[in-house]
TrEMBL record:
<dbReference type="Pfam" id="PF07676">
    <property type="entry name" value="PD40"/>
</dbReference>
<dbReference type="InterPro" id="IPR011042">
    <property type="entry name" value="6-blade_b-propeller_TolB-like"/>
</dbReference>
<protein>
    <submittedName>
        <fullName>Uncharacterized protein</fullName>
    </submittedName>
</protein>
<dbReference type="InterPro" id="IPR011659">
    <property type="entry name" value="WD40"/>
</dbReference>
Length: 629
């Protein structure tokens, strides 16, 4: 039986991106917004220098899809020839053909992306042709000026090695008419762009630490015996240069730059000796708080689901937990973008929000299944050592306060753990509401404990559930009460970056590992799993979690900061079978919650809801890109 219900989850930074596609006339510097000013719009390509028609990616329908906006028209068309997929990227239109990256076909093994290049003829046929060989991963396509050759940044058939600061891709070229005959034109590179049919520019991180643009001269013959070719660096050290785009005239290249005295990227143009200021330049950027268009980030946003009876909603916040009747969701929210998130409650239709704890760090919530006025949370700093003071808190309030207007409501915060007991976090309440399982560092290691949900650990109301010199964390009590699922690195305690799913009975018996990426010893990549935020379906037969096993969908250097750009949501049966991927994008998705039963009344919940926070922020530069070199 397929999983069903409603899943609410978080995506790092995504609700506040507010990207639109803009163009600027290089003769008069007039800037024009080309997209709707409401949704997330990015990675556009002009058809040619004389036609400002663009193809671009937009998330306006709940998933990244390919759209076309014609010159002089306010109408935007979703291209029907593109197959349904959770992810599309880098569309290019050339000679009546559309080229695009899609993820609608699953990879042949874990830790391999499903990013592949496809094409379709927009005039004569809706047939979609896969240009990437099966088992191969391709990113960032570019089509030569004549349309004869295609360049991609390819991971080839290798499984993902876990890197994301700079992907280990090569620049590969093949003929559009014979995509199976591929040659490595240049080793180590990403984001290729053609200038004519004979020159390819691309980026990679130079040996001196600066991201730079390189050039390779393509001989126009795939039979050339001198491949791979040594590239020529065309941008100097001292400035990061990314994502090159060659003009159609072959004389100029636009690049995104990050200079030492700037916090954000800017677009700059590299000129040849023959100067030309004609044409226009396109790019995506944050549309700004004062721009026309939607200025509200909705509390909840519908997201496309790959499973018919499973509804998915993106949350503006973290660590959601449903009330017993499903009418409300508890969450943590970043008040100052420094992880100082308080405790809030929203209606499950996204229409209202209240604040219970403010200006105090709180994270990971568990609403009592038996008390509609009680929420358990962790109070104290997140991502800290075993000795840091983090407490389990029981937050109670009067239920009638959730019937009034938005705002702060009074509550009582009762600390359930001792003052000098270390790092206590990630509470999960038992189905009968009597106990909490949580992670504690009081033993010197992060293991699981169970305590009284009302009186806490005082008067002997606590016992240790797991024990060992490893990390057991993020537990979740099953709806039947018979199992507790959690993440642990006990299979490889020396590596704090690998976690798998384990289940154990509340009495400490029948501990076992749920193998998701293959059985133990079946391949050499099983122990690279990073699985967190595990929770159960209503019937206890499915597990929902976030993981790295889907690899990377796009070049992370081209996206805003993501701490883990490989984080996607998956479901798997309790016996490890039936693995399904629920999200597929370049973001970090996590902290999911599964509604415990029945259909939610989502009311008027929709994309572009007027109920939410004000759009603010900028392009958050990846934290691993530094100008202090």
């Amino acid at each position: 039986m397929e999983p069903k219900g409603t899943i609410v989850f978080s995506t790092v930074g995504r609700p506040y991106y507010g990207f639109d596609v803009f163009s600027v006339n290089l003769q008069d510097s007039h800037e024009r917004c080309l997209t709707d000013g409401i949704s997330i719009n990015f990675n556009a390509q002009f058809v040619d220098d004389k036609d400002p028609t663009i193809v671009f990616v937009s998330e306006r329908s709940g998933a990244p899809r390919v759209y076309l906006t014609r010159a002089g028209s306010s109408k935007t068309e979703q291209l029907p020839a593109v197959p349904t997929s959770l992810f599309h990227d880098r569309p290019v239109r050339k000679n009546d053909k559309l080229y695009f990256v899609s993820a609608h076909e699953q990879p042949d093994q874990p830790f391999k992306s499903c990013s592949a290049l496809y094409s379709t003829n927009l005039i004569h046929s809706n047939k979609v042709t896969r240009l990437t060989p099966y088992g191969v991963v391709d990113y960032s396509p570019s089509i030569s000026q004549s349309g004869k050759f295609v360049a991609v940044a390819s991971y080839e058939s290798l499984p993902w090695a876990g890197e994301f600061h700079e992907l280990n891709t090569d620049i590969i070229v093949f003929s559009e008419s014979d995509p199976d005959k591929r040659v490595i034109v240049c080793e180590r590179g990403g984001w290729p762009t053609w200038s004519g049919d004979s020159t390819i520019y691309f980026h990679h991180k130079a040996d001196d630490g600066w991201w730079s643009i390189f050039r390779v001269d393509f001989p126009g013959n795939l039979e050339f015996s001198g491949f791979p070719i040594a590239p020529i660096r065309v941008t100097p050290p001292g400035v990061h240069c990314f994502t090159p785009a060659a003009f159609h005239d072959g004389k100029r290249i636009a690049v995104a730059t990050r200079r030492k005295d700037k916090k954000y990227r800017h677009v700059e143009i590299l000129m040849s000796n023959q100067r030309s200021d004609s044409g226009f330049l396109g790019y995506h950027r944050f549309r700004g708080e004062s721009a026309q268009g939607e200025s509200v980030v909705p509390y909840l946003e519908p997201v496309q689901s790959p499973i018919k009876d499973l509804r998915m909603l993106r949350l503006d916040g973290w660590f959601p937990s449903f009330s017993p009747d499903g009418k409300f969701i508890a969450l943590n929210h970043d008040f100052d973008s420094k992880l100082n998130g308080g405790l809030r409650v929203i209606k499950s239709d996204g229409s209202q929000r209240w604040t219970l704890i403010k200006n105090r760090i709180a994270f990971h919530n568990s609403w009592s299944p038996t008390e509609k006025h009680v929420i358990y949370t962790s109070v104290g700093p997140i991502f800290q050592s075993v000795k840091a003071t983090v407490q389990i808190a029981r937050v109670s309030f009067h239920p009638s306060n959730l019937n009034g207007e938005d705002g702060e409501i009074s509550c009582d915060v009762k600390i359930l753990t001792g003052e000098e007991t270390g790092n206590n976090a990630f509470p999960s309440c038992s189905p009968d509401g009597k106990f909490l399982v949580f992670r504690s560092g009081r033993s010197g290691h992060k293991n699981l404990f169970i305590l009284d949900a009302v009186n806490g650990e005082f008067d002997g109301g606590i016992r240790q559930l797991t024990e060992g010199s490893w990390i057991d964390t993020m537990p979740c009590w099953s709806p039947k009460g018979d199992l507790i699922a959690f993440s642990s690195n006990r299979h490889n305690p020396d590596d704090v970056s690998v976690f798998s799913i384990y289940v154990i009975k509340p009495d400490g018996s029948d501990l076992r590992r749920i193998h998701v990426a293959g059985s133990e010893g079946s391949n050499d990549i099983v122990d690279r799993e990073r699985i967190n935020h595990v929770c159960f379906s209503e019937d206890g037969e499915w597990l929902l979690f976030s993981s790295n096993i889907g690899g990377v969908m796009a070049e992370p250097v081209s996206w805003p900061n993501q701490f883990q750009p490989y984080g996607d949501l998956f479901v798997v049966r309790l016996d490890g079978s039936g693995l399904r991927k629920l999200t597929c994008n370049g973001y970090e998705n996590g902290t999911p919650a599964w509604h415990p039963g029945g259909e939610l009344d989502l009311g008027t919940l929709r994309l572009g809801s007027e109920n939410g926070d004000k759009l603010k922020g900028q392009f958050d530069e990846p934290l691993w890109i530094s100008c202090d070199i």
